[in-house]
Automatic annotation (TrEMBL):
Transmembrane segments: none
Top-rank taxon, per record: Eukaryota
Pfam families to which the protein is assigned, alphabetical: Abhydrolase_1 (PF00561)
Domain AB hydrolase-1, residue spans: 51-287
Name used for this protein in its record: AB hydrolase-1 domain-containing protein
InterPro entries xref list: AB_hydrolase_1 (IPR000073), Meta-cleavage_hydrolase (IPR052370)
Provenance organism: Populus tomentosa
C-alpha cells in the first residue's frame, strides 16, 4: 500500500474535506444510543431561517466522496446534514442489527439528538432505501423525499441479474471490490462513460485500499441484512410525503423500468425526473442537472 503522500485517493480526500469545510460544514461524531456512534457533517453555524436537508450516501465510499458537488451547491440555502452510515468511515455500532431499517432509525436518532425536528431527505442507491424507511417511519418529521437511483422495489431476481451482468459470482464482489477487475466491473454498471478502462491497476488498487477495504466484512453483513430484495415480491407501503425519483437513463444497477414501476407504488404525489446520458450516479456524472432538478422540487409549494 502506498503511503498517503503518494496516494491519489488520500490527496483527493484532503481536497474533498476542504470543499465541505469551505461550504460551512464541520465533522462530528455522536453516540445515538444502542452503542451506536454516527459520524456526520453538519453546519458549523446553524441558521434557523434555512430549511434542513439531509443527504444519505449509497454503498461504496463515505459521504465525502459521494456528495461534494451537492454540498457546495445547496449549502448557501439549506442547513445540510451529511451522515456516514454505520460501518462507513467512523460510524459504528456494537449492535447485531444490520438492516437498512436499523440504519434509518440510527440516522433519525442522530437528527433528533441534534434537535433537527423537520427535514427533507435525499438518498441515493442504498441511501435511498434508508431514506425511504425514515420517511415511512417518521412522517411527522420528513417534509419531502428524493429517492435517487434507488430500487426500493427491488426483487431478489434483480440482484441476480446484476451480478450476472457484471460477470461476477456474488453481489459482495461487485459492491465491495477487492481487485482491479472487480472495481472495473462496478464502474462498468455505475457510470456511463468508459474512460475508467484506461486507468492502470495500481491506481485502482489505491482506491480499493482507501475506499472499500475498511470494515469489508461488516459491510458484507449489511448486504445480507437487507430487508428489501429478499424475495420476488415487492412489499413496500406508500409514503405520505411528496416524492421525487431521480434516475439516470442508462442506469444498469437499477434500470429505468424499475423507476417507472416504483413511481406507481411509492406514493400519491410522486414525480420522476430522468437525467440523460448518465448511469447510476447522476449526482456525479451530471451534477448541474441533478442539483437543478432537486432544488426545483424542494422549492416548489406542496
Amino acid at each position: 500500500m502506498a503511503p498517503s503522500f503518494l496516494s491519489f485517493a488520500s490527496l483527493y480526500s484532503f481536497y474533498l474535506r476542504h470543499c465541505f469545510t469551505s461550504s460551512g460544514l464541520s465533522q462530528k461524531s455522536i453516540n445515538v444510543g444502542d452503542e451506536t456512534i454516527i459520524h456526520f457533517w453538519a453546519p458549523t453555524q446553524l441558521r434557523q431561517s434555512k430549511p434542513n436537508l439531509v443527504f444519505i450516501h449509497g454503498f461504496g465510499p463515505v459521504s465525502l466522496w459521494q456528495w461534494r458537488q451537492q454540498v457546495q451547491f445547496f449549502a448557501p440555502d439549506f442547513n445540510l446534514y451529511v451522515p456516514d452510515l454505520i460501518f462507513f468511515g467512523d460510524s459504528t455500532t456494537k449492535s447485531s442489527e444490520r438492516s437498512e431499517i436499523f440504519q434509518a432509525v440510527s440516522v433519525a436518532k442522530l437528527l433528533e439528538t441534534l434537535g433537527v425536528e423537520r427535514y427533507s431527505l435525499v438518498g441515493t442507491s442504498y441511501g435511498g432505501f434508508v431514506s425511504y424507511h425514515i420517511a415511512r417511519m417518521f412522517p411527522e418529521r420528513v417534509e419531502k423525499v428524493v429517492v435517487a437511483s434507488s430500487g426500493v422495489n427491488m426483487k431478489k431476481k434483480n440482484n441476480e441479474e446484476l451480478v450476472k451482468k457484471a460477470k461476477l459470482e456474488k453481489i459482495d464482489d461487485l459492491m465491495l471490490p477487492q481487485k482491479p477487475s472487480d472495481l472495473r466491473a462496478l464502474l462498468g454498471v455505475a457510470v456511463s462513460k468508459r474512460s475508467f478502462l484506461m486507468i492502470p491497476d495500481f491506481f485502482l488498487n489505491d482506491f480499493i485500499n482507501k475506499l472499500f477495504a475498511e470494515n469489508r466484512n461488516k459491510k458484507v453483513e449489511l448486504l445480507s441484512g437487507l430487508t428489501i430484495g429478499q424475495d420476488d415480491a415487492v412489499n413496500i407501503s406508500p409514503l405520505q410525503q411528496d416524492v421525487l425519483l431521480v434516475w439516470g437513463d442508462k442506469d444498469q444497477v437499477f434500470p429505468l423500468e424499475m423507476a417507472k414501476d416504483l413511481q406507481g407504488i411509492i406514493g400519491k404525489n410522486v414525480k420522476l425526473e430522468i437525467v440523460k446520458d448518465t448511469s447510476h450516479v447522476p449526482q456525479i456524472e451530471n451534477a448541474a442537472e441533478f442539483n437543478k432538478i432537486i432544488k426545483n422540487f424542494l422549492s416548489a409549494s406542496p
